[in-house]
Design goal:
The chain is α+β, with helices and mostly antiparallel strands and about 200 residues long. It has five helices and eight strands.
Length: about 200
């Protein structure tokens, strides 16, 4: 099983995958535009409790499709967004890393965040750090002066990625979309200003 899908289905989706545009390349990954064929794997990943451990809940198929459509709309609007990530070694979709307009009100918004979500089988291999470093270079080259990143305080793995790519801790805040009694409500905030690195 992979992301809860039968291995034959996963193999089919990988081997039949065709890119329509490549945006960024790292040693091990391609960061590219999204294709409709990514959606089943994306939805399965969003149902995986290991992947969604630091989120309030897993996502339904309908929620994943709505998120998929919002990501593609953001690319159409801005020319950047949350890039679909595939491994060079397999051609398989493994999640996303990229840029996203922050969608809630806070003292650091409006702004753009760098974020990532990878399949559980790809955790602990430095892939998020490798891809995020490439996205930082992309953002700087495209004139974005400041990026933010944030996560629930218990999410130490994501905080380590922020640190490894050179972001600096900027404080903490309560996420306005989460109820006061949620153990995930308190978030850490990191930022990077490209002209001050």
């Amino acid at each position: 099983m992979f992301f809860g899908l039968h291995s034959r289905v996963f193999s089919y989706l990988c081997t039949k995958h065709h890119r329509d545009m490549e945006y960024l390349e790292t040693e091990r990954m391609i960061l590219r535009s999204w294709e409709r064929k990514d959606l089943p794997l994306f939805a399965a990943m969003n149902k995986d409790e290991r992947v969604m451990r630091y989120f309030p809940s897993t996502m339904t198929d309908e929620q994943s499709e709505a998120f998929f459509n919002r990501i593609r709309d953001e690319f159409d609007r801005n020319g950047w967004g949350l890039f679909a990530v595939e491994l060079k070694s397999t051609g398989c979709f493994i999640g996303y890393v990229g840029l996203h307009e922050i969608g809630f009100d806070a003292d650091f918004t409006p702004g753009v965040e760098i974020g990532w979500r990878l399949a559980a089988e790809c955790h602990g291999q430095g892939l998020a750090t490798e891809a995020a470093a490439a996205v930082l270079k992309f953002a700087e080259a495209n004139g974005l002066p400041i990026l933010y990143s944030f996560t629930a305080k218990p999410n130490i793995p994501s905080e380590r990625v922020m640190q490894k790519i050179g972001m600096k801790r900027a404080g903490e805040f309560d996420h306005p979309s989460l109820p006061p009694d949620s153990p995930l409500r308190r978030h850490i905030l990191y930022r990077i200003e490209f002209d001050k690195r």
